[in-house]
Design a protein that fits this description.
The chain is α+β, with helices and mostly antiparallel strands. The chain has one domain. 20% of the residues lie in helices and 38% in strands. Strands 2-1-5-3-4 form a five-stranded mixed beta sheet, covered by helices on one side. Strands 6-7 form a two-stranded antiparallel sheet. The longest helix is centred in the middle third of the chain and has 16 residues. The chain is globular. It starts with a strand and ends with a strand.
Length: 79
């Protein structure tokens, strides 16, 4: 199972996919790509407490957890 966490102004959203279900993987990929085009930054996070992370630029269906955060300006999310 993979998890895509989307941080937003009105709260956080999670999308979970089963790597063996192509339609779930494709939904997560479409969401990831759409948000990246809007300027969101993405990280791949591993480990129970997120102790291993790296910024990424492409969707990885084998990732344990992906986090997308909106672009920031002056410490606040851009509108």
């Amino acid at each position: 199972m993979g998890e895509l966490a989307i941080l937003g102004r009105s709260g956080d959203t999670k999308i979970v996919w089963d790597r063996n279900r192509p339609e779930e993987v494709e939904n997560a990929r479409r969401t990831f790509d759409s948000l990246r085009k809007q300027g969101y930054l993405a990280w791949s996070v591993r480990g129970r407490d997120g102790e291993k992370d790296e910024q990424i630029h492409a969707f990885d269906p084998d990732a344990e957890r992906l986090i997308l955060a909106p672009p920031m300006r002056g410490g606040a999310p851009c509108r």
